[in-house]
Write a structure and sequence with these properties.
The structure holds two protein chains of two kinds. Chain A is an all-alpha fold. Chain A is about 75% helix and about 0% strand. The radius of gyration of chain A is 22 Å and the shape is globular. In chain B, the strands form two sheets. Chain B has a six-stranded mixed beta sheet, with helices on both faces. A two-stranded antiparallel sheet of chain B has the order 2-3. The two termini of chain B are about 20 Å apart. The chains are: A mainly alpha, B alpha/beta. Chain A: This is ABC transporter permease.
């Protein structure tokens, strides 16, 4: 145990950290520029931006300092770690869908289902090595992307409902089934949420050489294999994200109606 | 308060009095918080919502048509997809040959007539109309109003119509309900209440 603590403390004494801090300072200056511009342009985003930057730095350094220990724990713990990440992802994602009924339940279920299914399938298929040091970083990447896609889907769905309330209620008033009335808006949410990952897939390899592939090549891996594995990662992200946003949109599309098939109020709703 | 069969009840009152809310309640787009709504003596909460809304059809103030063609709009929702019935109704509403027109290209009066057509295709017992002519110019208003009067008599409909126009209320209504601050203020025959 003493050895673990010693190793934990030793990493803070490494002179490379000074270089790292200098790099952080330059990157933070650029980020601060954006925060400043946001303030000047009256985007009222500066608070959220600043908090997100500081929070991101603290979280990643905290994770960096314990990751050495984390990656040596027993394999069984990886499930617990990933589940913890999914809970965190739900927490972040639900803010985007704030005001939608059942948003926490729906986000949690969708993220667990979408990313869980992909992680388990790919681990069973051997594409993700069944060790903590593989499962946790790759799993976290899938979960983080599922979260992002879920947020986009909820955000878009919410504004669809707000701006199309009259049309949805006109459909209900005719005695049409809620699922039929809402389906166009559910689809719009899913489509919008998948645009970034589809664009990433399109630009893969010519506009964008992702980190994992670059790292594998630098570590001496066969470049073609590195490319194939990078595609596997992208496909996993796409699959998990697509499953997540379809699940959450479909479920939210149900929760948004009462048992008597009335459209519930959504909090940001500006209509009367 | 009761609405007798085959009568036209006009609902008037200042804006914010709850006229539209009253229609939403009758169509069960909103839930009654106290008291009950009975349809043919039956608590309407015992009727499945879709069946109820087909029997008590609402034409909203904003036609809120779905992007697409006229056919996409009128064929949506109704149980009846009997196209002879559809053609006949479109003819009745002066919309023959409109099936493939894009709703974006239509005038306000045409959109309103399509909204009326899609509700009538359900063959409702009760028709709820929320200011059906308020967005229209006077020529279109007259046309839609005449059409409504003919349809109401021909189909022997029970109608609840919201209007802010007391002259229109006199022309169309049998009975009047005056709402004020969300409460029933007066109800009775048109000639008495709007004397």
């Amino acid at each position: 145990m003493d050895a673990v603590i010693e190793e934990f403390l030793e990493q803070f004494a490494d002179p490379v950290l000074l270089t790292g801090l200098a790099q952080v300072a330059v990157a933070a200056a650029l980020a601060a520029l954006v925060v400043g511009l946001s303030h000047l342009r009256g985007l009222t985003l500066e608070r959220e931006l600043a908090v997100a930057l500081v929070r991101g730095l603290i979280q990643i350094v905290a994770m960096g300092s314990i990751v050495g220990v984390l990656l040596t724990v027993d394999f069984v713990w990886s499930g617990v770690i990933l589940l913890g990440m999914m809970i965190g992802a739900t927490w972040i994602s639900k803010n985007r869908g704030e005001g939608l009924p059942g948003v926490v339940r729906v986000s949690f279920f969708a993220i667990v289902f979408g990313s869980g299914l992909v992680i388990i399938t790919m681990t069973l298929a051997g594409a993700i090595e069944a060790t903590v040091r593989n499962l946790v970083p790759v799993g976290s990447m899938i979960i983080a992307n599922a979260m992002q896609i879920n947020s986009l889907a909820l955000d878009r769905f919410k504004s669809e409902i707000a701006s199309n309330r009259a049309e949805i209620e006109a459909g209900l008033a005719l005695g049409a089934p809620p699922a039929a009335v809402i389906s166009r808006h559910v689809e719009t949410g899913v489509q919008a949420s998948l645009i970034p990952v589809i664009d990433s897939l399109k630009s893969l390899g010519w506009v964008w050489i992702p980190g994992i592939m670059a790292g594998m090549i630098l570590a001496g891996e066969n470049p073609i294999y590195a490319a194939l594995y990078q595609f596997v990662i992208m496909a996993m992200i796409f699959a998990a994200g697509g499953l997540t946003s379809m699940t959450s949109s479909l479920l939210i599309g149900k929760y948004v109606f009462t048992d008597a098939e009335q459209l519930r109020r959504v909090e940001t709703d500006s209509s009367s | 308060m009761a609405i007798p069969e085959s009568t036209v009840l006009v609902v008037v009152g200042p804006s914010g009095a709850g006229k539209s809310s009253f229609l939403r309640l009758l169509n069960r787009l909103d839930e009654p918080t106290e008291r009950m709504v009975l349809l043919d003596g039956e608590d309407y909460r015992n009727i499945p919502p879709r069946a109820l809304r087909r029997r008590v059809g609402l034409v909203p103030q904003d036609p809120a048509l779905v992007p697409g063609t006229v056919f996409d709009n009128v064929a949506r929702g109704p149980l009846l997809r009997d196209e002879t019935h559809l053609e006949e109704l479109l003819e009745r509403l002066g919309l023959t040959g409109y099936e493939d027109r894009d709703v974006e290209e239509l005038s306000g009066g045409e959109k309103q007539r399509i909204a009326i057509a899609r509700t009538l295709l359900n063959d409702p017992d009760v028709l709820l109309l929320d200011e059906p002519t308020s967005h229209l110019d006077s020529a279109a208003e007259e046309r839609v109003e005449t059409l409504l009067v003919d349809l109401i008599h021909e189909l022997d409909l029970t109608v609840v119509m919201v209007t802010h126009d007391e002259d229109q209320a006199r022309r169309i209504g049998d009975r009047v309900l005056v709402l004020r601050d969300g409460r029933l203020d007066r109800v009775g025959p048109v000639e008495e209440v709007l004397a």
